[in-house]
Amino acid sequence: MDSTLLRIFLSVANNRSISLAALELGFAQSNITTRIKQLENGIGHLLFHRVPKGVKLTHEGEKLYPFAVEIVKKIDEAFSFMKNINQQEILRVGSTQTNAPIRLFPFISKLNEDYSNMKIEIYTNTTPYVVEALLDYKIDIAFVSGNPNHKDIMVLQIFEEDIYIVEAKDKQSENCILGYKDSCAYFTYFYSQMRINSNQIVKTSTFENYETILGCVKLGLGKSLVPISIIKKFGFENDLKMTKLDCGLFTHLVCRKDYIPIISDYLKNISFL
After folding, report:
1. Cβ(223)–Cβ(166) under 8 Å?
2. Could you tell me the pTM of the whole model?
């Protein structure tokens, strides 16, 4: 079975649209339709129903889907492994948004100095999504907030963090938690603690960057849980009331146990701050 056909099948299934799959893959829509028909003929089953807003997997398509995911994943894993079998030609790095400005960028700069010929790809999101990408072999290493404590994950380095509850310095802060997305490790931890320690309903509000969060905290619009490195980066250390919290949300540099980068010894000892 042609793995290219399976990639097209997955794109159509995930997008629920032939036209969107064509855009994603950079193919003509007619080419996508032809390839899907080719796969259906080879399998002997119809894989998609045409519906008003796109396509929907048939029962047979649903049965094929997990196999297609696994096959494509293994092919990508094998391709990446063979490219890096003698040297680390590609390093796919994941990071939480918190770590991107304070840790990821200096890290990439150091890698560029020491491995000038190595290609680096970057993926950023909140901790749960970064961990998911690591477990799916979509990235090789990741900076995450807290230890994932997963049987398939190895910790390469731990970076201690001073974490602070921040609130307005000269006024009463509203009973609202401010954070970066509701899947952010700091946000979810702070929210759970506030729910435990407060009998009141806790409001929440999320933003796309930490500078905005800290600015809103300064104005008294709520409280947040933030690493000191972020507070200092955006120059708010003298503008906020800060209470240190021992929550154990240290940054961990991790990889898969069954997919350890060739330069793992280097990564365990790299210093870039």
Report:
1. yes
2. 0.65
